[in-house]
Amino acid sequence: MSTSASGAREYQYIVRIAGTDLDGTMRIDQALTKIRGIGTTLAKAILHKAEIKPNIRTGYINETEKQKIEDLLANPSKHGILAYQLNRQKDPETGQTLHQIGADLALQIKTDVEQMKNMKSWRGFRHAYGLRVRGQRTRTTGRRGKAMGVRKKQATSKRETSK
């Protein structure tokens, strides 16, 4: 841990890891989940491999610990993170097991959806029409933003129509 001359740890309110600003007041295991593409299981595995206690606050992380975390995020399979914890297993283009975070993950998801639309697969069709993709029920749910239902006619009395 980094210490000053008085022996107290230096504290940062905002810590930047993997291109994402993390709140320094949060526990490190919870703060890592704020990075897109990292869940609780992967965050705990990264901290275990980096030998960082998961209950310390993010603001107390020093530069060497931050560098360890970023190295683990850059290539987690090289450091012994199991393949089922990664989000890109058997990539169709390279055939390797990868893990993507942040803007790279968002771009990869977007290109995957566009590829499904172009090959006119069932999932691509569902994505294109804004419907549920994974087999969820659509009869009663998912009606937000669409014109559905029956519109009732204006109730008119007989007196108004006879005049």
Write a short abstract of this structure:
This protein has 163 residues and is mainly alpha-helical. It has helices at residues 28-31, 40-50, 63-74, 102-118, 122-128, 158-162, and strands spanning 14-17, 20-23. The mean pLDDT is 83.
Characterise the protein shown here.
There is one protein chain. The protein has 163 residues and is mostly helical. It has 6 helices and 2 strands; from the N terminus they run ββαααααα. It has helices at 28-31, 40-50, 63-74, 102-118, 122-128, 158-162, and strands spanning 14-17, 20-23. A two-stranded antiparallel ribbon has the order 1-2. α2 (40-50) packs across α3 and α4 (102-118) crosses α5 (122-128). The radius of gyration is 25 Å and the shape is elongated.
How is this fold's topology laid out?
Blueprint lengths: L13 E4 L2 E4 L4 H4 L8 H11 L12 H12 L27 H17 L3 H7 L29 H5 L1
Antiparallel strand pairs: 1-2
